[in-house]
Amino acid sequence: MKKKTTTALIVLSYIAFISLGLPDGLLGVAWPGIRNSFNLPLDAMGLLLIFSTAGYMVSSFFSGALVRRLGIGGLLSLSCGATATALMIYSITPLWGLFVIAASLGGLGAGAIDAGINTYVEKNHSERMMQWLHASFGIGITLGPVIMTLGISLTTKWQVGYFMVSIAQATLAIIFFTTRKMWKAATTGETEKHHVAGEASIGETLKKLSALLSMLMFFIYTGVELGLGLWAYSLLTISRHVDPAIAGFITGSYWAMFTFGRILAGWYTHKLSVKTILYISLISAMTGALLVSLNLGDGMTIAGIAIIGFSIAPIFPSLITDTGNRVGPRHVSNTIGMQIAAAGFGAAVVPSIAGVLARIYSLEIIPLYLLTALVLLFLCFTLSHPRSLKKSSS
Description:
Elements: H1 2-38, H2 45-61, H3 63-92, H4 96-124, H5 127-155, H6 159-178, H7 180-197, H8 202-206, H9 209-239, H10 244-268, H11 274-294, H12 298-312, H13 315-321, H14 323-327, H15 332-360, H16 365-393
Helix pairs in contact: 1-3, 1-4, 1-5, 1-6, 1-9, 2-4, 2-15, 3-4, 3-6, 3-7, 4-15, 5-6, 5-10, 5-13, 9-10, 9-15, 9-16, 10-12, 11-12, 11-16, 15-16
């Protein structure tokens, strides 16, 4: 019975992460249509991301307290319900202000469950399970551009994609509500384990340099990951004059390679060290970003986008799994929540700056900007690794 319950919880965790990925995958393809509908400037996406991230950061930062109060099952249900409501508002509102406010609700729905599920898997399962958890997110974010592209192709309306995903999210909210008792035992077990281990307070964790450095890495990484996903469609259609339908599927291929990379990582994580995986991933991603920046033709651009998607795939889950080595067991729960919050902040700030730069210069500045961010991430990891080794051996 215990094994069956554990398997069921893993499956439900994967479903939760598919649901998290879907809305993120919609925005990049929908954005040109949203801009036209509300008569917005190119960089207005930044406002949307800021409001979304505000909700995301609040809920993820305090995810530990939310899990203790609601249980993981209750939190999953509430999260999907909030996201479904936000997406439904997207699909029907004629007001840009209400659209932006709905983004905050969507962010609140996504943030807590992101941190909560990451903490559950990090503490109870292997790195392989962590990679596949995030591969599930990749499945959702891969399906997002495809759903939105098909919706626009069939109806010429971007709202249809958001409506379809809203219905799916509402269905998931019901599923998680009916299975909340399955999570209660797991949450209770974790709470008892935390009490015995003597977990640190949030204030103590914030004083650790390794925790702050971890937050910086997640800030940069997630900004790059989502930045290319959000701006690739605009870059291809507006600046490089690729057919919109083809550009939509190319954007989807970025997330498809991203998902494939995480699925594959689940098989080789036990053969390679985290350090090796991260260095290979970062160097390969920088190579892909360079190809996109050079604009050597559509073929090389597509190859570069695919390389980036595949290369960055293992980074986030590998850094999550390695959290305990960097900060120590007492700080794991707090640090994971803080990392997720920093990741959400980066997902808003980094792509928003890309939009500002694109308005000032051109969309062609975006791949160069993301390449620079990847170089900075590489340097941050290089600086953090000796400290990680020292911490692990102490």
